[in-house]
Here is the input.
Amino acid sequence: MSLSLKPLADALGTEATGVDLSASVSEEIVEALKEALRDNLLLVVRDQHLSAAQYLAAVRLFGETMEQHLSDLLMEEHPEIAVLDSRNSPVGNDGRGIPLGSKDWHTDHTNHANPPKMTAMYALSLPRAGGDTGFANMHLAYEALPDEDKAHFDGLKTVNRIENNPYVSDAHKKRFGAAQIHPLIRTHPETGRKAIYIHPGKTERIEGMGEDESDAFVDRLMARAIQPENSYRHQWQLGDLVIWDNRSISHIAYRDYDHKERRIMHRVILAGDTPV
Here is the structure.
């Protein structure tokens, strides 16, 4: 069976079938996968059967792995991998699990000076129903803004700090605790396209705004940015390896499932550069 690529949605996403990333893959196939990811921002490689070591090797086809601050979730023998097991999720007042990481739309690890360029997730166990992940193309979100808003937002910066989550060690909170300043509108280093770039949970404030004004601004911005026409909702299948461009996409883990039913994902992030 040969590699087949097909679009998942108009806004973003490519599905890849006919490739086994547990084995050696030709340069031609690797380049085709990289091109699909660059052009469509999200790549879903179906039907993978990977050990932890094979998973890391597969993800490293796209870049260098980097340290995660999800301290208590890191795999002991392969600390580049965070194990997201829904059975360990905190439980909200409604009795449903709160996804590990963030329950709202966000981009990953903006509290780092050089946030990850990509995030990868590999599905090992899934609930009987639900557990989808939403993705939004933040290039399209930016391009849909009126010109006067683009001009205004281009000059804004976010002040980012690590969240006080219980699974993050004091050592990691200290190491990654310094405030990081990033542009609200980020230019992609490979394509030159601009995107709205923000993690609301890690945004302490917008520079030049007070806390209440900043919170209201971010809420309004995200409500405008996340629209059906620029989004894709991924319904996971066992063996899916999904990798997305963290510089261009916001994502959310939906809470529409029984967290006791073993939704288990292996998460890896790839080293990025300074947002500009």
